[in-house]
Structure formats: structure tokens, C-alpha cells
Amino acid sequence: MTDTIRLSSLAPSTAAQKGSPPPVRKPHPLLRLLSYGRAYHRQMGLATLCSVLNQFFDLAPPFIIGAAIDIVAQRESRLINWFTVGDLGDLRTQFLILTGLSFLIWWLESAFEYAYARLWRNLAQNIEHDLRLDAYSHVQELETAYFEERSSGGLMAILNDDINQLERFLDIGANELIHVAATIIIISIAFVLLAPGIAWTAVLPMPFVIWGSLIFQRYLAPRYAEVRSKVSLLSGRLANNLGGMTTIKSFVTEDYEVERLRADSEAYRQSNFRAIALSAAFIPLIRNVILLGFAATLLFGGFQTADGLMSVGVYSMMVFLIQRLLWPLTRLGETMDQYQRAMASTNRVLDLLDTPIQIQSGTTPLVKEKVKGEIVLQDVTFAYHDRQPIIERLHLRIPAGQTIAIVGATGSGKSTLVKLLLRLYEIRSGVITLDGIDIRQLQLRDLRRAIGWVSQDVFLFHGTVGENIAYGSPGATLEEIVQAAQLAEAHEFIETLPRGYDTIVGERGQKLSGGQRQRLAIARAILKDPPILILDEATSAVDNETEAAIQRSLEKITRNRTTIAIAHRLSTIRDADQIYVMEQGRIAEFGDHDALLAKQGLYAALWRVQTGIRL
């Protein structure tokens, strides 16, 4: 996530002249989080109540101590008499009452501590779980261009690190903030009711504490936003390097990558240093502010006790209570530190959730079994973001059940065309229809279920061979998996693997050769049994023998389905019903293999280059 650029004083007027919209002011991250967690408001309220009650009973022992001191010093307790009506009996009875109250208070404090700990921790786990699933589900719905402009490591930092940071705050920090607020309120009320003459001494530090907290929060927020930004860049670097480890080794760039990582890690460390330098100053400042209240209570409360205006027990209790403010308020620095980290993470996670989905699903259902497979592109234009059109005013009709091939030089738009059919990208203008229906009107998942795509960049998941073939076909039997593998000419090599179909392929299928991965991808598409099959350089990584075997099985694979084959190796598509030659985003020529050779055009030139045969 990039930092917001602060423009100079002249920039806003310039931007306004250009008609740039003013930046949208987002709600406070805490309000955004509360809005997201509406389903858990009842649990939040119950957890908050338990935290307040726990703190109330945690602050009760000084009252017991004050009452006991009055009983010993004055043979009666003004505290007990203040809270009760009538005579409670002799001093021994009062001590028995105090002892019983002590047991009750300690038990209730422990009970509410157990309750709030469970409630807050369960709440943290629930929100963390929901956020991670919602964020990941949302990411899956984003268009392909979104991922091309961002690093996977940066997204991982949001989906994992930032959500974990929020979970840590909800687990501990939220309760700490409530404890601090409850402590301030309870002690202030106690001073007003029991020692109104010195109540101002308890209130004295509060404005400074609140003002100081707000100031620290204002300056800490951007520093922790920078920290989260730097850790995202660092995660992106690590993810990128781990994925390209073989390339790093082959080009002997280990030292270079260590230095690049060192620079990113140093930037992260320095951003943390800047945040720590400010957050570490919070506790010492708060201690000195609390000292004012403690000293005032000690001095002026002592004067009132000496003058007989306050009992010794009440004075002792007030001194104890003002000290009880010290510990939670000094912990407030650490809690505010957690809070600011969590709010920075909250903004990043919720910003991801607020990212608009550019490619919206249509509403018309599509039954895969009823798809005939006629595809028509009418006046289609497409360009990647901020680039010249790669496909421009393209017209193409693919009859149902036919096998057509698309060839052309690199960058002519062949693979892009396939991605437009799958709606991985959205066309700029024109229309694409499937069986006469605009694909933008179709339910997106139904459209993609009807298309089997074998990409030239095969991705296999960490798991077994069988699981990768059955991916996208839940409930497939082993017999069906084997049959698909046989059609893809993959069964023979699978049988030679250590555990056959139960062999682990490794991350991205790294334990298999390129040709083996490609055959598994073909088997996966065959098992899906789509009415439309797209082979995007599907035989580019196989040897000649395997290519010949796949070619033999193509007749079975393509039977009763529309097949689009994109290829550089023209030998793999010479038997296609129709071959389209693309050049600079347009159809330059088309026809079957023999007709195109006879034209002596682009196709014939490509054929001569690949075969060495002069026509």
C-alpha cells in the first residue's frame, strides 16, 4: 500500500483546475471495524460488561481496607455505616462481614475475569476467522488485472499479518482500554461520594491524560500506517524471492538479493524505530501526570484528616485508589501502541474488502449440459490499463462443435482473446456471445464451468497427482480420474511415480517435469468435461513423442465440443477445421491448413520458418 502523497500548497488548486475529485474521508478505523462486526455486537456488549464488573470488584479491596482501618482506629466503620442503614452489631460482627465481603469480592472478580477472557478471546477468533474468509473470498472475485498490479506478498501481509495484528488487539488490548476507562469512572465516583472535599485531586490528572493520549494517537497513527506499509513490501520481497529461488541460484544473485532484502528490512526497522521513539515516551509522561494527583491527594487529604473532616479509613482508601490509577494508566501506553497497530491493520484489511469488483456476474443461468458452444465476437476491442488496444474491432465466429486454431506472433493477442472469453478481463467495447447470449449477462461461475482451459503456464496445487487431476471436479471417482489421465497420455508416466496417483507433486508441481505438469493439466480439463475446451499452448512443454500421442487423442478429446487451440507449433493444429491468423489484434487471414498455405501469406511464412520447407 503506497503512502498518500502530500501535495504542496499550490497542488490542490492545480488538481481542482483539472477536475480531480477531492479525497474521500474514511470513517475512523474503529467505527469501520464495529460496522463490520455488527453480528457480534451482543457478544461485544457482554464482554464489555464483564470487563467493567471485573474492574469494579478489582477496585473493591481498598474499600474493605478503609473500613477495617476505621474499625480498628475508631471502633466503628464510617464506610460500612455509609453503605448500610441501622446498627450492624459489635466490632467482631463487622469484621466477620468484611471477611465475608472479601471472599465474595475475590470470587466475583475471578468469575468475571474468566468470563471476559473467554468472551474477548472468542470474539477475537471469530472476527479474525470472518475477516480472513471474507477478505480472501473478496480477493478471489477481483479481476486478473488487480493481481498483475500488486505483489502476492503484499496481499499475504494483509490476509495474514494484518488480520493477526487485529486479533491480538481484540484478544488483550480492547479489555485493557475498558479497564482503564472503568477505573477512571469508578475512582472518580468514589472520590465524589466519599471525599468530596478532595475529589478534584482525582480529576486533576484526567484532562492531561486524555489530551496526551489524543496527541499521541494523532502522531502514532501515520507512523504505524508506515510500519504496515513497509512490512507489506518486505513480505512481497520474501514471497517473490522464495518463488524465484531457482532463478536466483542460476544467475548467482544471492548476494544481490540479500542486499535488496536488507534494504527493505532496514526500511521496516527504521519505520518501527520512529514509532517506538514516540510510543516509548508515553508511559514516563503519564507517570509524572499521575504523580500530581497522588501528591495532591496525599497532601490535602492528610490536611482534612488532621482537621477531623475525613476518617483515617477514608483517607487510606483514597490514597490506595489514586495509586490504582497509576498501573492501568501506565499500561495505557502499551495498549495504545497495540491499538494504533491494530487500527492501521484494520484500515488495510477493510480497504481490501472495499476494493470494488470490476467484473460483475450476470444473472442469466447457464446449464453446462445444454451449451452448444457457438461463440461470436462482434467488433471487440480490448486494452490493458493505460496501454494501446491489444485487440481492436475484432470479428470472429466459432461454430458449435468445431475445432478452430488461433496462431500468430507473440503479442498479437491470442492468449488475451481466451481470457476475454473467460471474462478474466472485461472488453472495452463490442460484444461476445455464447449460443446467442451476451456473456456479460450470464452467471459468471456458470460461464467458467462451461469452459475448460489448459494454460501454457500450468499451475498445480501442493497435493497428490489424483487431487490435481480432480481439481474442479468434486466427487470424481478414481476410475474417472484414470480415464482422463489416459486420454491426456498421462497415465503411463503416473504409474511410474513412487505412489502412482497418490504421489505428492510439490508446490506448483515442482517435482514433475514441464511436460508432465502439462499433461496433468490436460487431464484436469478433460475430467471437467466442458462443452468448450481451450488449449492455450497446451503442448508447448511436451516432447515430440508425447505431442504425437496427445495429437492422437485429440480426436476423442474434442469430440462433441467446441475447441479453441492456440499454438506456436503449427504442426499441432494443422488438422483444425479453421485456422485464424492474428496480427496486431486483428484477424489477418483464415482458412484450413491447405488453403492458408496456398495463400502464401502470414501462415505460409510461419510454416516455412518452422518446417524449413519452401513452398
TrEMBL record:
Membrane topology, record value: Multi-pass membrane protein
Domain of life: Bacteria
Keyword Isomerase listed: no
Pfam families: ABC_membrane, ABC_tran
Region ranges (Disordered): 1-26
Cited PROSITE patterns: ABC_TM1F (PS50929), ABC_TRANSPORTER_1 (PS00211), ABC_TRANSPORTER_2 (PS50893)
Domain ABC transporter: 375-609
Main location: membrane
Domain ABC transmembrane type-1, chain residue ranges per copy: 46-341
Stretches that traverse the bilayer: 95-116, 177-196, 202-220, 275-303
Record keywords: ATP-binding, Membrane, Nucleotide-binding, Transmembrane, Transmembrane helix
Sequence ranges of Polar residues compositional bias: 1-17
Signal peptide extent: none
Cross-referenced SUPFAM superfamilies: ABC transporter transmembrane region, P-loop containing nucleoside triphosphate hydrolases
Protein's UniProt keywords contain Secreted: no
GO molecular-function terms, A-Z: ATP binding
Compartments it resides in: Cell membrane
Identification of the protein by name: ABC transporter ATP-binding protein
Organism: Thermostichus vulcanus str. 'Rupite'
